[in-house]
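Record 1 of the preview.
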Amino acid sequence: MTTDTSDTAGLLPLLSARDPDAPLAWRAGVPVSTRQYLADVARFAPTLPAQGPAVNLCVDRYAFAVSLGAALVRGHASLLPPDARPDTLARLVESGGPTLFALTDDAKLQTPGMRRVLIEDRSSLEGDAGAVLPQVPRIGGATHAASLLTSGSTGVPQPHAKTWRTLVGDVAVAVERLCRVLGRPTLEGLTLVATVPVQHSYGLESSALLAMLGGAAFESGRPFFPADVAQTLASVPRPRALVTTPFHLKTLLLSGIALPPVDLILSATAPLSPQLAQQAEQAMGGVLLEIYGSTESGQVATRRTTDSEIWETFGEIRVHAEPSADGGPERFIFQGDFMPEPTPMADVLELLDERRFRLFGRANDLIHVAGRRSSLAHLNYHLNSIAGVDDGAFWLPDEVADGVVRPVAFVVAPTLSAGEIIAALRQRLEPVFVPRRVVQVKAFPREGTGKLTVRALREFALAQLAEDDTPVQMAHAVPADHPVFEGHFPGQPLLPGALVLAEVMEAIRRVPALTARLGASPTLAAAKFLSPVRPGSTLSIELHPEAGAARGVRFDVRCDGVVAVTGRWTAVPGSV
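->
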């Protein structure tokens, strides 16, 4: 097969130059040749609707690649949503117009409002191994090839359009870097096994496109459970690469399952700890490379995590800092090579030069507690470094009554107590960032890539705290010169019961989950005053969320160790 990658008359090939009989894909251990792929695209493209765009919902990577190629040949852009949930598809229908249609390999998937084209019903996918090689399609470089759709904080899919030239250039710089790391002249023969969905920018770039445009091959499935990952890796020949995320990688290593040798491990979507990178390289024997980028920019840099914390940009990509127009933190702009325009990143970086940098975390990830600054990524890194923590995430409540907020840690750590986790964090973090509460959970609502979005974490945190019956304890000092003592009572001053109850309610307001539990106007269901509160006393307020249908909050107020007031607040029926 003779294909070139030159941009003749603005046209770029659908596939890089490669042996037509070599595998482009593997399906359940069976190779699918480049010849077969081109035949499938040629036969499938004319069957697509005359107008688009297409929503590519195929889970199987080979079906996805055929659909992508056929759509390009037909002149349609492919919309790649983050999931196929009914609400996601409904929003696409609202914004996509009447010509929108769906490509899927799932006969049971419903796509209301969209014409559905079921790729598995096409006999062309069976093909003829010895058929005459079809001409490699050439696509206009300026063609709108794909729009990656991400759900922002509002949940509305945000499209990021990519031209074919951008995607081809994106892969080209990655191939150059991967070949250098592997010490190979090309990626020919390398098979990619990916745990990430192909509709995600990282999954698209580092599985389907890396094979189509970079000379490698991909395994068509998406193994998730550790045993499935090990089996899938074993089903394809070496050299092979695992394309994954920190969350998936940690789960895989914690499983204890014996893993086949892997020549390359790619990781993205979140920074990886050096300890986990070293464990992965030792367990699988391959080189681990982290990829840095975004949906907007594509992949722009890598680092060998076991060698250095420094990231190096691809090719001729450069990065510089610019002051923010609104007077906020400076922005970091990437530009060059395949990038059509300078693109800012939502991260805080330390630039060593125009091609090398350190990553500190997302700009909206920075937190301030009691005048000290850190980032949630930094806190999560230390939390997940604790032996026995299978997964963990810090969450910062939205607000508190007195303006002082403390982070809460959620963990999947069946063998550890909250006290043990807090003790371990005291060895790693500044005191103000050590959480007062550690909440044990069974799992987090992570996306298919392993990401935990800000919105999903907030909803999850509030729900978990509302159900959590772990007592909350706060201390409050009663000033000796509080003006109320002048009238209550001369010679034997004491703090009125109403003020003690006000302090209890103030403590409840500082815990967002308790506020959500009781509503805006809770009812004092019971209160017993057992001991006076004198000037200069220290109050210890203990809040006990009730389990079951009652869902009230019991409280005990101790004055210098003696129970002074006990009672219970409940929600007004129908208020929550």
